[in-house]
Each structure stands twice: as C-alpha cells, then as structure tokens.
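User: Show me a protein chain along with its predicted structure.
Assistant: Here is one chain, sequence first, then structure tokens.
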Amino acid sequence: MNEKGGKEPRVQTQIIVPKKAATGSVQLVPTLQVVEGPRMGSLHRFRPNEENSVTVGRTADAQFVLAHPTLSRCHAKFTWMRVGTEFHMLIEDLGSTNGTSLDGKKIDSTFLKDGDRVSLGDVILRFQKLSACELAERDRLIAKATAAEVDQLTGLGTRRYMEEHVPKLFSECEARGMPLSLLVLDLDHFKRVNDTLGHQIGDEVLRAAGRIIVTQIRASDTAIRYGGEEVVVFLPGSPVMGARLVAERLRCAIAAFNTATISAGLKLSVSIGVAQRFDGESFGDLLKRADDALYRAKHAGRNRVEADVRSSAERPTTQ
C-alpha cells in the first residue's frame, strides 16, 4: 500500500536474452556416425547450410562404404534437405535386401530426429547434430585411439589392432559359414636395402608397399604390419584359390612399382604365402601354414606366390 492507501504499481521485469543465445548462432553440424559395424566410430559430416546427401553401402557404388555382408551394394541414402525455413535429415531405403529400420520398424523413407539410431542390416548408424567443439574433441579422441591401431609408417594396422580384431573376425566368419584366408607377405632382400641404401630409403620402400597393399585389397580385408617388412592380410569370404589370385595381384603391383621415385637402381619384389583357415583353427596354426608357404616361395627363387598344400586339397577351389 502507498501512503494514500492505494496499491503500489506492479513493476514488470524484462529478461533480456543475449543475442547469441536468442538467435542460436552456435553452428551445429549434422553427422552420421557408425556405432556398430565396420569402421566403427567413423563419421560423415554434412554441410549444415546447404542441401547435400550421401549414399551408404558395402561397395564402391556407395559414397560412404561400410563393407559388411548384411548391407546391399548401395543400401540407403541420407539427405540433409530444406523443409520450409529449416533443414531436416531424410533417410531413404534404396531397395536393399535386408531393409532399413528405425526403432525396430522397417521403413522406406522418413525424417530423423537428433540422436536417432538407424539399422541398415546389422550395421547401426546414429544421426546427431554436433557443435564445432564437440567435433574437435571427438577428432582428438579418435586420433589418440587410432595412433595405437594404425602403423604410422605404412598406414596398415598394428599388431595391437590385430589382437583385438582377429578373434571377432574368426567368430563372424564361423557364424556365417564364410571362408577366411591369410596372406603373409615379405619384401625380398629388404635387409640388403637397409644395409646398402640406408634406413631412410628402407622406410620409403615400406611406405610405398603399404600404399600398394591398401589399394589392391577390399575394404572388408585387413592388412597388418606384423614385423619389420612382413605384412599379414586377412581375407574374409575368400577361399584359398581366390586368395591366391589376390596375392598374385599384390605381387604384380609391387613388382611394377616405379622404384626410381625412391632410389635409382632399386629393385622391389615380394614373396607371399597363402593359407585358408580350418574351422576352429587358431591364428598361430594358420600363420604357421601360411608362413611355411612363404618359406617355399622364398626357397623357390622369391617374387612368387605359394599356397598351403592342405588348404588347396581340403578346401573349395572356387569362389
């Protein structure tokens, strides 16, 4: 009450929202992340201020390749598109064999909400909008984890990665009744390269070999730097004869490499042993059979491919 007995006038307090918060000026980037399946943790970034899209599948027919047997060659399409004044993420199944699901229900096409998890066959992707700070922190953590899994010289996997990955690979191939073959590659006369030309040239040779190997194998294959100049390659879905063809392709590609780009007069070749895994066989036993085949290739003059005899005799000979 005031002095005259009347009511005090009501004072309205206005809350002023900072312009940055009111306009939502923090830029969020739409992303698609693999949370279950091959290349787990990998991320596709969409351009936030314009319409753009990506197709996902198991072969090079798709733009975002996830080499998993339950995916179709070109399985689904994700489109960041303008609807009225806002952008939204549209997912469309591209006539896949195993279908596309959201919350356990098969879909042909629908718009996604932030945080939605989508199943393409057995592969699960998450749509999420992230800030620049969140993306930077994620990249930092991924880089830290990758440093232990990727050999910094060759770009191939490390033995640590192999120890974690191989048991899962063996189990998956057994569960699906898929053949699995192993290649063991050893660069011929590599010690001579180090001794006569120096370790710097030797490192350049290893870098070149790593690049060649990656370009000659499928996305579903796994190449590991197992020792100094020794590489092992796991080929899921390939019986021994198919694996031998891959090995020949690798041998020819390495032999055809223009070594003059590294050092004049340098010669480069590789010997390769091939073996197909028996059901329930340990990695050590499989490696020994492939290694024995490699020894025969070396003993027979190098720059050649030899396959384990028992693999050829006891396994299917066609893909």
